[in-house]
Amino acid sequence: MNADGLIQTTNLTKSYACGPTQVMALRDVSLSVARGRFIGVTGASGSGKSTLMNLLGGLDTPSSGSICVGGKRISDLNPAQLALCRRETVGMIFQSFNLVVSYSAIENVAFPLLFANVAKKERLERAAQLLQVVGLEDRRDHRPTELSGGEQQRVAVARALVNRPEILLADEPTGNLDSKTSLQIVQMLHDLKIEQSLTIVMISHEESLLREFSDEVVYLQDGAVISHEILRGRP
Q: Which of 29, 121, 180, 214 could disulfide-pair with 38, CB 3.0 to 4.6 Å?
């Protein structure tokens, strides 16, 4: 394991009670994600991919094991501390775009900055800059219903970046998109990784996309890592 990893998990385990039975969602997952790497995570439905992503993003807590992000053991944080860590360190993208339908694109992107007490002028300036980065500067005043699926996901990407996170977590970001748009979105994530020195962890059923753009691919089965393949460079 790389001791210099930006993200470190050690024997990460998550179980859920289902009546009298304990369901193991993750089993002793130990991973190290080096700064600036694009890590793909794949596996069949029920393999533990989304559970892993929720734990890395601080949306859930492990049953045992530990998670360290930037040297901070987030598995020991309380809910308020986790929320602060997410706001300052992690951006998240989901399969569902989760945009506020009554807000314009620029308002959706700027929205997280409200909770960081950023002044309105700066919120809108940062949101406008990111819409330009994702190629939607001419759609800034359009609401989600006026945007295509690919455009909505680009807005979601811009929103995830507005707090200037070190880490971008993407949970099936192409799940609701056609193959051409999926390729464009993952290409954009790859380019952003380079341009903004991001560390990316992306879950996808589309192994071919992960192999084309990611630096490493982790394969999960029944909650455990069964393979970890380095495709490009070294962590």
A: 214
For residue 91, which of 186, 159, 155, 184 has the smallest C-alpha distance? 159
Please count the other Cβ atoms lying within 10 Å of the Cβ belonging to residue 205: 14
Residue 173 belongs to some domain of the structure: yes
The pair of structure tokens assigned to 14 is: 């998550």
The CATH number of the domain holding residue 166 is: 3.40.50.300
Q: Quick: pLDDT tens for 62-72.
A: 999 999 998 88
Question: Which regions in the chain score pLDDT beneath 50?
Answer: 1-3
Query: Measured at the alpha carbon of residue 40, what is the angle toward residues 165 and 227, in degrees to the nearest 5?
Result: 135
Q: How many CA atoms lie within 13 A of 75 on its CB side?
A: 18
Looking at residue 4, its pLDDT comes to 60
The predicted structure's pLDDT at residue 59 = 87
Residue range(s) defining the domain that contains residue 132: 7-230
> Could you report the per-residue pLDDT of 129-155, keeping only the tens digit for each?
999 999 999 999 999 999 999 999 999
> Which H/E stretch holds residue 202?
strand 199-203
How many residues make up the chain in this entry? 235
Q: Is residue 235 part of a domain?
A: no
**Taking phi first (over 0 means left), then psi (-120 to 50 degrees means alpha), and beta for anything else, what does residue 89 get?**
alpha
